[in-house]
Design a protein that fits this description.
Glyco_hydro_32_AS; six-stranded antiparallel sheet; Tachylectin-2, Chain A; Glyco_hydro_32; about 10% helix; seven-stranded mixed sheet; Glyco_hydro_32_C; binds 2,5-dideoxy-2,5-imino-D-mannitol; Jelly Rolls; hydrolase; signal
C-alpha cells in the first residue's frame, strides 16, 4: 500500500491547516476532556481529514452509501407524501466517526437516492456537542416530528425534537429545532452519558409514548416516557425493560407485528391480532437482539415470551455486520421496513487481537500527524465503504417465534442480465460456476434439494454458538449433509472467496439443526482486516428436503437470506483480487451426501443512484 501523503489526495499545507483548525475546535468544545460514550472508534486526529480520493474498488453499486466519508446509524426513516426519507449519522468532514450530523437523503423507491443538505447539525446549547440517533413520528395530522439525542457542552445526553421548516417543500429540506428544547432532560437517577436514541413514538391510552436506551452499571435499561401533547414528557416509573449483564442498550426499537401475514402495521396499533417486538443494540458487542412479547398499553408493560433468550445470545435480525437498526411503517404500501447499518466496528477485545490497537491508542498529543497519519488513515480507509443494508420488509414468522425479512421488492428493478441453472447434481467436492453475470454485483436465488437426511452429522451442544461452529467447520471441512452453498466473490483459483453455506446436523432428540454460515476469513489476504466467520441457526422444517438461499453480492457486501429470510447474515469483505470482472460465483458441495441445485437464478445488478447526483 502506498503510504505517502500524496495518495491521500490532501495537500500537506491544507491538511495542516484543516487539522489545526479541527483540533482547536475539538479542544474548545471539550472533545478530549469528556470522552464520547458510544463506543465508536475515536480517531481525533482523523476526524477532520477530508477524503478527496475515494477508493472505488470496494464501493457498493446498489447499497445506500454517501459519496464519501463516515456514516453510521440509519436515523428517522419515514415516508411522507410518497417520498421516502432516510437520515443517517454522518461525518461531513472525515472518514472516521466524529462531527456527527443528521445527513438526509430522499427517494421514491427505496433504491435510488438523492442527497440533500444535512437536516440537523449541532447549533444550539442542547445539541452543541452532537446530534445523535433518533426517529421520526408522523402525527395524526400528517406532520412529521423528529426525536433525537442532543449532547450539550458538558456531553449530557438529552432528547430534542425538530420539525420541518416548510411543510410545502415535498423534500422537507430544512428542519428547525424550537427553543423549548430539550423535551426530555435526564433526571438525577438516570445515567446522563448513556441516555439516548428515542424510538418512533406511538399513541395509546391518550398518551404519546417513546422508549430511550440507557444503562445502570452493566444493566441495560429501556426507559419509557409519556406525553399528552408531544411536548411535556414524563418517565413511566418502572423501566420499560431491563436486563442484567448486557451493558448499554442503544437504539431501542419497539413496534407491533401482525400475528398472521406479511403486512406491516402502524406503530400505534395494539389489539388481539398483534404481537410486539423490542429490539436493542448492544454497545459492548456491537450486535443487536430482539424479543417478541406481549405489550399491555394500559399498564405500559412489555413481557417477552418466556421461551426467548433475553440477553446477548438472543435472536438477531442479522447475524453479521449489522447494527443500530431501525424500522418504520410504510403506510403507502402497508409494510414494515427495516434499515440496518452494515457496520465495521467490532468489540474492544477484537480490536486488540486483530492488531488495530496501535491506531486506536495513539492520542492526538503524541501523534506525529505527518509521519503516521497516512498509514493509519489509509489502512483504516480501506474499511471506509460504510453503508446501510438493503431495506427489508419484515413480518412475524407463521410460528410466531421469530421475525422474517426480505429485500424490498423494488430492489428487483435493478436486476439485469439473468442466468439460470436447473437440476445440477453436486457430489462431494464438486462445484459449478455461475457464468454470464457480473459476479461482483449480483442477486442470486437458489434452492438446494437433498434426499438423504441420514448423512447429517451428529450435533454436539458443547460446540457453542453458531458463529463458533462456522469458524471451526469451514466451507472446506468435509461434512455429511453440507457444507453446501455459494462461493461468492471468489477468484478462479479460490485464493480469495467468501462462502455462504448450510450444514445440517442431527441432535440427540433426532431433530435436525440447520446452520447458516457466512465466512469472511478468506475473503482477502490483507493482514489487518476484521474477517470473522458469522453464523446463525435456521429454524425451518427441512423434511421436504429443500433449503433456499438468496444472496445480494455488492463488491464489498455479501448480504444473505437463508430459508426465505428466517436467518440473515451480512458480511463486509474487501477482496483484493476478486473484484469487478475477476470475481466469480460458484455453487458448491463439500458434504458426502450429494445435493442438487434444483434451481438457481442469478442476475447482474445495475448501479442504483446512491446519492451521487440523481433526481427522484
Ligand atoms: N451511534 C450514535 C448514538 C447511538 C450509537 C452516535 C449507535 O446515538 O447510540 O453516532 O451506533
Amino acid at each position: 500500500m502506498d503510504g505517502s501523503r500524496r495518495s491521500l489526495g490532501l495537500p500537506a499545507a491544507a491538511a495542516a491547516v484543516a487539522l489545526a483548525w479541527c483540533l482547536l475546535v475539538m479542544v474548545l468544545s471539550g472533545v478530549f476532556i469528556v470522552p464520547a460514550s458510544a463506543t465508536h472508534e475515536i480517531f481525533p486526529e482523523l476526524q477532520c481529514v477530508s477524503v478527496l480520493n475515494v477508493k472505488k474498488v470496494h464501493r457498493t453499486g446498489f447499497h445506500f452509501q454517501p459519496p464519501k466519508h463516515w456514516i453510521n446509524d440509519p436515523n428517522g426513516p419515514m415516508v411522507y407524501k410518497g417520498i421516502y426519507h432516510l437520515f443517517y449519522q454522518y461525518n461531513p468532514k472525515g472518514a472516521v466517526w466524529g462531527n456527527i450530523v443528521w445527513a438526509h437523503s430522499v427517494s421514491r423507491d427505496l433504491v435510488n437516492w438523492k442527497t440533500l443538505e444535512p437536516a440537523i447539525y449541532p447549533s444550539k446549547p442542547f445539541d452543541i456537542r452532537g446530534c445523535w440517533s433518533g426517529s421520526a413520528t408522523i402525527l395524526p395530522d400528517g406532520r412529521p416530528v423528529i426525536l433525537y439525542t442532543g449532547l450539550d457542552k458538558d456531553a449530557v445526553q438529552m432528547q430534542n425534537y425538530a420539525i420541518p421548516s416548510d411543510m410545502n417543500d415535498p423534500y422537507l429540506r430544512r428542519w428547525s429545532k424550537p427553543d423549548d428544547n430539550p423535551l426530555i432532560y435526564p433526571s438525577k437517577d438516570v445515567n446522563a452519558s448513556a441516555f439516548r436514541d428515542p424510538s418512533t413514538a406511538w399513541f395509546s391510552g391518550g398518551h404519546w409514548k417513546t422508549v430511550i436506551g440507557s444503562r445502570h452499571h452493566h444493566r441495560g435499561i429501556v426507559y419509557m416516557y409519556r406525553s399528552k401533547d408531544f411536548k411535556h414528557w414524563n418517565r413511566v416509573k418502572h423501566p420499560f425493560h431491563t436486563v442484567p449483564n448486557t451493558g448499554n442498550f442503544e437504539c431501542p426499537d419497539f413496534f407491533p407485528v401482525l400475528k398472521a401475514g406479511q403486512n406491516g402495521i402502524d406503530t400505534s396499533a395494539v389489539g388481539e391480532n398483534v404481537r410486539h417486538v423490542l429490539k436493542v443494540s448492544l454497545d459492548e458487542t456491537r450486535y443487536e437482539y430482539y424479543t417478541i412479547g406481549t405489550y399491555n398499553p394500559d399498564k405500559d408493560k412489555y413481557v417477552p415470551d418466556g421461551s426467548l433468550e433475553d440477553g446477548w445470545g438472543g435472536l438477531r435480525l442479522d447475524y453479521g455486520n449489522f447494527y443500530a437498526s431501525k424500522t418504520f411503517y410504510d403506510s403507502g404500501k402497508g409494510r414494515r421496513i427495516l434499515w440496518g447499518w452494515a457496520n465495521e466496528s467490532d468489540s474492544q477485545a477484537n480490536d486488540t487481537t486483530k492488531g488495530w490497537a496501535g491506531v486506536q491508542v495513539r492520542t492526538w498529543k503524541s501523534y506525529d500527524f505527518f509521519s503516521q497519519v497516512d498509514d493509519a488513515f489509509l489502512s483504516y480507509c480501506r474499511r471506509c465503504t460504510f453503508c446501510q443494508t438493503i431495506p427489508r420488509t419484515m413480518w412475524l414468522d407463521s410460528g410466531g417465534k421469530q421475525l422474517v425479512h426480505w429485500p424490498v421488492q423494488e430492489i428487483e428493478t435493478l436486476r439485469g442480465n439473468k442466468v439460470e441453472l436447473q437440476n445440477v447434481e453436486l457430489k462431494r467436492g464438486e462445484h459449478v460456476e455461475v457464468k454470464g453475470i457480473t459476479a461482483a454485483q449480483a442477486d442470486v436465488e437458489v434452492v438446494f434439494a437433498f434426499s438423504d437426511l441420514s448423512r447429517a452429522e451428529h450435533f454436539d451442544p458443547r460446540w457453542g454458538p453458531a458463529h463458533r461452529i462456522c469458524a471451526q467447520k469451514s466451507a472446506n471441512s468435509p461434512g455429511g449433509l453440507g457444507p453446501f452453498g455459494l462461493m461468492t466473490l471468489a477468484t478462479v483459483d479460490f485464493h480469495e472467496y467468501t462462502p455462504v453455506f448450510f450444514r445440517i446436523f442431527k441432535a440427540d432428540n433426532n431433530k435436525h439443526i440447520i446452520l447458516l454460515c457466512s465466512d469472511a476469513r478468506n475473503s482477502s489476504h490483507a493482514g489487518d482486516l476484521y474477517k470473522p466467520a458469522f453464523g446463525g441457526f435456521v429454524n425451518v422444517d427441512i423434511s421436504h428436503g429443500k433449503l433456499s438461499l438468496r444472496t445480494l453480492i455488492d463488491n464489498s457486501v455479501v448480504e444473505s437470506f437463508g430459508a426465505g429470510g428466517r436467518t440473515c447474515i451480512t458480511s463486509r469483505v474487501y477482496p483484493e483480487k476478486a473484484t469487478y470482472d475477476n470475481a466469480r460465483l460458484f455453487a458448491f458441495n463439500h458434504g458426502s451426501s450429494p445435493i442438487t441445485v434444483e434451481k438457481l437464478s442469478a442476475w447482474s445488478m445495475k448501479n442504483a443512484d446512491r446519492n451521487i447526483g440523481g433526481t427522484i
